[in-house]
From TrEMBL:
Molecular function per GO: DNA binding; DNA-binding transcription factor activity
Protein name: DNA-binding transcriptional regulator, LysR family
Cellular component terms per the entry's GO annotation: cytosol
DNA-binding in keyword set: yes
Similarity-based family: Belongs to the LysR transcriptional regulatory family.
Organism listed in the record: Falsiroseomonas stagni DSM 19981
Domain HTH lysR-type: 24-78
Keywords: DNA-binding, Transcription, Transcription regulation
InterPro entries: HTH-type_LysR_regulators, LysR_HTH_N, LysR_subst-bd, WH-like_DNA-bd_sf, WH_DNA-bd_sf
Length: 328
């Protein structure tokens, strides 16, 4: 079983990710809704009724609800089915709009993308994907402020960012997740640190050593504060900073421990002298890295294109094996 598969269900992909993976399933569900019959829907779709029944059963098991009520006269949406099928219809409408935007990409030459991001993705993932995108669209420019997740959401809502890529982004009605990928915390320390040979680590092991932590604006710090609160203790900080680079340099030269999410724990070119070790799942030290936009806002063509590019890259990280226990 992959490490990502052990994450709690609440860190599974958001509906935006479901949409990207299951567009064919939508077609099946809408055919059943339209015909009121699994057999007739299967005939229309040119698949076996038993295969269609299995796909429907898989979706219902994933959701935990029956989507259709069965009777001798056929099937009709259940109350839960009405809700879910309404969502499917809205996603189809959004998909049609996206296809129109994608058609506009054929002529995409110039544009500007504004993406507010967590520092965890700033040293490796984001510059790599911007470079790859600009290799295809060299005249697209970027504005990438590095902020905590609350500030990232505010930038979406005040119109100063098209997209956010933030760890621990709290759900808000105004924010539409496009993709969510579960991330564990990793303890980052010097290679000669007493804990460097142990994996996985418990947080209680780490807190016995000096800590260098990000400020409370960042999701990793909030996870650690929540852990300390559950234990009725306080974290003893040797250093607090809003600079992840400073934290890494500090623990390289001190017998201290810092924490970052696995996707950015040891960015390329910054790992010399450091190790990153996953925190044991029993400490609930994990959360979502979320790509999102403002709900109800049509993205500029360049931003929509980069959102799709970045979503594919992030989705590919689900099956990427961890390197040196970090995923980086």
């Amino acid at each position: 079983m992959r490490d990502a598969d052990r994450l709690p269900d609440r860190w599974r992909p958001e509906p935006g990710a479901f949409a990207m993976r299951h567009m064919r399933v939508w077609t099946y569900l809408l055919a059943i809704e339209h015909t009121g019959s699994i057999r007739q829907a299967a005939e229309r779709l040119n698949i076996a009724p038993s295969a269609l029944q299995r796909r429907l059963r898989d979706v219902e098991q994933d959701l935990g609800f029956d989507l259709f009520e069965r009777s001798a006269a056929g099937v009709r949406p259940s109350a839960a089915g009405e809700i879910f099928l309404g969502w499917v219809h809205r996603q189809c409408a959004d998909l049609d709009r996206s296809r129109q935007q994608m058609e506009a990409l054929r002529g995409l030459r110039r544009g500007h993308v504004r993406i507010a991001a967590s520092q965890a993705v700033a040293c490796d993932l984001l510059p790599r994907e911007i470079t790859a995108f600009q290799a295809r669209y060299p005249l697209i420019s970027f504005d990438c402020p590095l902020v905590g997740h609350d500030a990232a959401a505010e930038r979406l809502m005040d119109g100063t960012a098209d997209l956010v890529l933030a760890f621990g982004l709290a759900p808000r009605p105004e924010v539409l997740p496009l993709l969510s990928i579960g991330q564990r915390l990793c303890a980052v320390m010097a290679r000669d640190h007493p804990l460097a040979g142990r994996a996985p680590l418990r947080l209680r092991d780490c807190t016995a050593h000096p800590l260098a932590l990000p400020t409370t604006d960042y999701g990793a710090r909030r996870i650690l504060d929540a852990w300390a609160a559950r234990r009725g203790t306080a974290l003893d900080l040797a250093l607090e900073s809003d600079s992840f680079e400073l934290l890494r340099h500090y623990v390289r030269n001190a017998r201290a421990v810092t924490f970052q999410i696995e996707i950015g724990a040891l960015p390329s070119g910054a790992a010399e002298g450091l190790v990153a070790i996953p925190v044991d799942d029993r400490d609930l030290a994990h959360g979502p890295l979320v790509l999102a936009q403002l709900r109800g806002r049509a993205l500029p063509v360049a931003a929509a294109a980069f959102a799709e590019h970045l979503a594919r890259a992030l989705d590919g990280r689900r099956t990427t094996p961890m390197l040196d226990d970090t995923g980086a």
